[in-house]
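Suppose a colleague, Dr. K., hands you the sequence of a protein chain of 225 amino acids and asks what its three-dimensional shape might be. Before reaching for any lab equipment, you can write down a predicted structure in token form. Begin with the sequence itself:
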Amino acid sequence: MRVLVIEDSLRLSKYVRDGLAQAGYSVDVAHDGEEGLWLALSNEYDAIILDLMLPKLDGIAVLQRLRAKGRKTHVLILTARDSVADRVRGLDEGADDYLVKPFALEELIARVQTLIRRSYGFKDPVLSIGGLKIDTARRIVSRGSRELSLTVREFALLEYLVMRKGEVVSRTEIEKHIYDEQAEPSSNVVDSSIHRLRKKIETVGAGDLIRTRRGMGYVIEDQKK
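The predicted structure, expressed as tokens, is then:
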């Protein structure tokens, strides 16, 4: 999943970016409100982490302009302002959650995971499909007592396809949501990742969940085996 972090502190933005990346997220970072707004309007993100006290354009203005443009991306406000009035204003302007600095990285990641699940219509952190259980909180995939050994990127790919269950997902969409922008993955990289993921799913007897739609992309279906 792809997350945008809009935070002017270089140290804090690196801390958050590294933590999210280690948890399997693709992360873009902006250090002022104008750059953050441009990125948010130019790309598709699964969640946005937004500081309020930003140079050039403050966080509330960024949020207002995002919502005015019809962007529904879930936004987590991250700020040192801890008054009730500040929290209420942020939520009234369209934020989905609020976390006050200083914070625990584990809590931030958990809140981001919750926002992303909510944006795709899921509440339970454990997704079930075709006999597989995908624990989005612990980042574990299993079938019965057998656990799949997936790389961080493979888990992210499976999670994204499951959350888009029943929809044909193009290679371009996979690239945008799963891979870092700097990586510039080719369609061959996506195909190779799908191939490896299919093989691993098959080893636990879950069947071929991922179907290819030639010239369109991939769709994951629950075969209920």
